[in-house]
Amino acid sequence: MAELVEITDPGDPRLADYRDLRDVELRKSLEAEHGLFLAEGEKVVRRAVAAGHQPRSFMMAPRWLDGLADVLDASPAPCFVVSEAMAEEVTGFHVHRGALASLQRLPSPSVEEVLAGARSVLVLEDIVDHTNVGAIFRSAAAMGFDAVLLAPRCADPLYRRAVKVGMGAVFSLPWTRLPDWYDALPHLSRAGFCTVAMTLADDAVPIEDAVAGVDRLALVLGSEGHGLSARWEQAADRRAIIPMAPGIDSLNVAAASAVACYVAARR
User: What pTM value is reported for the model?
Assistant: First the structure.
């Protein structure tokens, strides 16, 4: 059972995992160094624990204790009880969902483990916005995709903002990072996947046509700015586009992922 520890000093070193959550670069180094990530909100904390992530600690205001009482009862990690004002002072934002948990990361599976038995996979290249990554994971999970693969420079799916926007989809959807960016798509093709790149290339066909008849699909999405790299665009087996009304050429990558996943799931 979690020990309830009341803390009144915002500078208490035991709250280090929760400090300055808006400082992205600081959080990247701290979380990588200690192998941790933060979950926010009752539902997300529950999903993280259910997925096998061991809590390091919890931090919440008194009125949120009852909602996670069963999770706290099952955990030996301490629960730091703070006022809502102090939680905001420590984290740097208003913790309106009440509960925060610091949890241990699990070892990353291999690409082969993630792809085993998968029929529909999302492949992300250099998507750097955590909100977009979280939204893409949520769309992929909602549309029944089996896994997500990330290029080395993609944003961290376990960063607090990504986890929150994705409503914990990162805990139910197998994922890992690709060790080899250059030959990633040819490798997927050799593994039996048809790689379909979402792009504005001249030879791109409507997404419905690109995925028609495909058994094992790897749907490829590029960065928020310039889209896919020339290497990945050319290495894909097929190139696809979401047809638009005149005068509009593209959607935000998170919105495009939702549309493309919906179409692909019904192929």
Answer: 0.92
